[in-house]
Structures are given as C-alpha cells and as structure tokens.
Amino acid sequence: MAKTIKVYEGNRAGRYRVTVNGAPLRHVCRHSPDGFEWGYGGSGPADLARSILIDCLGQDRADRLYQDFKWSFVSRFQFKGWKITSEQIESWADKFEADLAAEPGLEPDGFALVAHIEGKDGLE
Predict the structure, then answer these.
(1) Is the entire prediction scored with pTM above 0.90?
(2) Average pLDDT by consecutive 10-residue portion of the chain (124 residues)?
C-alpha cells in the first residue's frame, strides 16, 4: 500500500493559517501560547516546526530535530505563505540525521543554524 503524502501549508488569509491536507494542524505548544508563526527564528516558528514534525515524524524525532528544522525551513518560509510535503520533510530529516551520525560529537538543536552561519548549507 502506498504511503499517503501529507501537504503542510501556511497562509495569512482564510480561516486556518496552517493546515495539513486541508485540515488545521494541531498546535503542540511548548514555546508560544500565541500560536504559530514563520519567517524568522522565534517561539512561534519553533512551535510550528515542532508541530509539523510531530505530525510527520512522531514525537521522539520531532523533539530531537525541530530547532534545526526551524532554522532550515520555517525561518525561511515566505511571509505570505508556504507549502512543504511530508516527502520533503522525511528526506531532510533522514539526510540531517545521517550527516550528524557522520560527524562524531555533533548534536542536533542548532546544527543547521551553525551550518548556515558558517556558510556550509549552500544558502546565501
């Protein structure tokens, strides 16, 4: 049986700002009681990253990776709106964890930010 691809989407118009396959994404609050946000690296984006990853990858992986996902994706989402699939997220998570495993002593939670600051992520 083929795996269902989820589509996560955020926009600043309409009834729901963040959806998964058209339904509201559940806000799993850790940092921001005011809800989701994107386009920078604060508490609202952290909760968005964590909530997307919990839905897509499960609680354990999400709690390990959400800060790095925030810096790799959520902080870069366009203000007006964005879309990302579960396939893209799973591919990023698998590669990110493989890269961590290949570098002894590195831990998640900030690795993507450090890579970006050091210019090792291929982004400007």
Answers:
(1) no
(2) 89 83 88 84 93 96 94 93 96 90 66 52 44
